[in-house]
Structures are given as structure tokens and as C-alpha cells.
Give the backbone structure.
Amino acid sequence: MIEVDVVILGAGAAGLFAAGECLLRGRRVVVLDHAAHPGEKIRISGGGRCNFTNRALTRQNAPERFLSGNPRFALSALSRFTPADFIARVDRAGIAWHEKHLGQLFCDGKAGQIIDMLLAPLRDGGLEPGVTIDTVEREGEGFLVHTSEGTVRAASVIVATGGKSIPKIGASGLGYRIAEGFGLKVTETRPALVPLTFSEQDLARTAPLSGIAVEATVSAGRTRFTEPVLFTHRGLSGPAILQISSYWREGDSLHVDLAPGRDIAGELAKMRGEAGRIALHNALARLLPEKLAQLVVADAGLSGRLADQNNDKLRALAARLHGWEIRPVGSEGYRTAEVTLGGVDTDELDARTMMAKRVPGLYFIGEVVDVTGWLGGYNFQWAWSSGWAAGQVA
Ligand code: FDA
């Protein structure tokens, strides 16, 4: 039997970061993971360059940018370990980075640099990959963790097993089962930051657009995002769709403006004076991707030259572009979802320490908790901040 102060379940972003913090305090730590390699999601994140935080995050906008049963729960950890704090660690490790847009920070080089930084405190041991975790049980004031390699006894257990997204690289839902085993509530979970899929009928119309990306404003209820949308052979993807997927529910329609902030009817009317002889779809193709222009013109039941269209027709055409209503039938699911919405109910946890209020010594950090960020580095920041919070006390 191994005896340590802290056993951490999951060698992902949150677990590795918490391990480093516990080690700084002189705690004896072991990190267990069933995967052969630690931090696999970090490695594939941000197109291989890891969008490791977002510096547009503020105390004011955090409740909007992190979805949770209690939108204020994450504030404590996020404001005590901030994006600037993580950037300072990245700088200290000599990792070069750049800002893309909307505050998103990426490594200049490979995401593996972030994994190396997180693994540095564990270079003398403490990381145990390839271990199957069977059960976690209370023993006196501490815990026993039974695994494929034997039992670990520890005063504290930090559950950092992430969500259900991308089972192929290790996601398992174990953390939810551990929480429920201790009688803690877990909120409904569902795939988020995920492409949405269309019915056969809608796909038959949009399939020719597969591969085309346009800047669009996508709304579900009162929530809207203006970013690129990508047509796929299953439906829609791209940043605006991934973002709205966290808010969309089965049965809801999406409102899509395929030319946000533009006066398409006005632009066509102006073009009519100079180039009225060209076909309407070719005129629209000067403003939008060609295949999209063809589809919208055909859908509007219009044909002929631009000069043949009166202002009412141009306005009707533009209205279709600015107000496309589409009802996805589902999502691509956990196979491709970047994160899992829902998780261990925040009512069960102390926001300052991430410890279960009813089970002293048991902590939950990262994606396993019912805190889900927007696309753009928010989810890693939650992993660092919640890992830091538990790492100060466990
Ligand atoms: P994480 O999933 O990282 O780690 C959990 C660990 O627990 C894994 O190592 C897993 O093997 C282990 N585990 C699970 N079940 C186990 C079991 N039964 N036994 C033992 N071990 C077990 N976010 C962001 O902010 N910026 C970005 O650029 C991206 N990009 C991105 C791309 C892709 C393709 C995905 C899928 C996700 C992202 N994300 C992201 C989201 C981000 O990766 C995610 O929010 C964090 O990795 C969550 O960190 P955790 O440590 O909580 O879980």
C-alpha cells in the first residue's frame, strides 16, 4: 500500500496543476491516470498550440462566460488565480506565446510545452500513468483509493478526471460516479462546444456548402455570437456554432445572420446601377461565397439578371440571408465535443477550496465540476484556477 498526503485522480490540466501546488507546500503527492500519457487534451488543444487562457476574462464578465447552476461559483477561484497569474507561470517557463483575437492566448510552439511545464514539479516521481481506478472509500479521516496496481491511502483525494468528452483519449465519467458514491448531487451532463447536426432534409439543401466558412451572427434565445460558421457534411460547426451549442437544446431553432452588419439589399441595389446585366446569383457571389449565393437565390425563387430585380425582391433576398432559421436535430455528441456541460453540483462544493462540504478531504476540480467556459481558453483557465484553489489546502 502506498501512503501519501494527497492522491490526485486524473493527470489532465487541473490535476497536474493542483499537483504542482501541493508539492510546493511540501505535500507528498501521487497522481493516478488510466491513460498512458498525461495531459492528452492539452496536447491536442488549440489546434496543437493550446489556447491556455483568455485575457479578456474579468470579474464582471465571468458569470456570463462560465455556464453553471450558480454562475457566481467560479468567481472566487478565478479571481484569486487569474489569467495574469497563469501567464506569469508560462513566462517563467520561457514559453513564447501570442494573442490571436478576443483575448485568446496560444503558444507560439507546440502545446507539449505546457505539459512539460506542468510535469516539471513531478520529475522526481509522483505520476502513475496506466492505472485503472476502481473505487474510492472513506477510511477514518482519510481515504483509500483501490486501483489496478494496489491501494493508495491518503488524507485528501482530489478528483480531476474531467468530463465525458472524447472518450477515445481517456474521458470516462469516473468523477461523477465518485461524487454520487459519496452522496453528492451531479447535475445533468451534455456535450458542449460541439458541432450541430441537421435532418436529412436540411442536409440535402446545405450539403453542397460543406467546407464553406462565413462570418455570421448565431442566436439561440437571447444569446448570440458573431464569429465564423462552417458548413459541414453533417450540419454546422465553427466557433459561433460551438459557442451557441452550450445554450442550444433539442427542439430549439437557431437564428443565423449570414451577413452580419451588412446591408446586402443596399449593396446589390448599388451594383444594379453599374452591372445590371449580370445574373443575380453572380452579383450576390461578389458579396458572398459563390455556392452560398447560388443556394440563397434559388431558395428565394429568384432568377434572371440583377437589373430584373426590383428593390422589394432584393430586400426579400437579403432578409433570407440575415434571418436564416434552422432547427438542428442534434449534436455530434461526446465524440467531438470539446467539453461537458454540467457536473458535480456547485452547491456541494466550497467555492474557496473546491472541497465537498459534506465530505471533508474530498475535492473536485476542473471540468468534472458544473462550471463550463466559453470557447477561447476559458476552460483551461478554470482548470488552473480551481486546481490552484484546491492545491493551497489539500
Ligand atoms: P482533462 O480531461 O484534461 O483530464 C482528465 C484526466 O483524467 C485525463 O488525463 C484522463 O485520462 C483521466 N481520467 C479520466 N477518467 C479516468 C479514469 N476512469 N481513471 C483514471 N484516469 C481517468 N480548452 C481551452 O481552454 N482551450 C483550448 O484550446 C481547448 N481546446 C480543446 C480541444 C479539444 C479537441 C478538446 C477535446 C478540448 C479542448 N479544451 C480547450 C477543453 C479543455 O481541454 C478541458 O476543459 C480541460 O482539459 C479540462 O481539464 P481537466 O483536467 O478537468 O480534464
About this structure: The radius of gyration is 25 Å. The chain is about 30% helix and 25% strand. The chain has two domains: 2-190+338-391, 195-331. The chain has a mean pLDDT of 97.
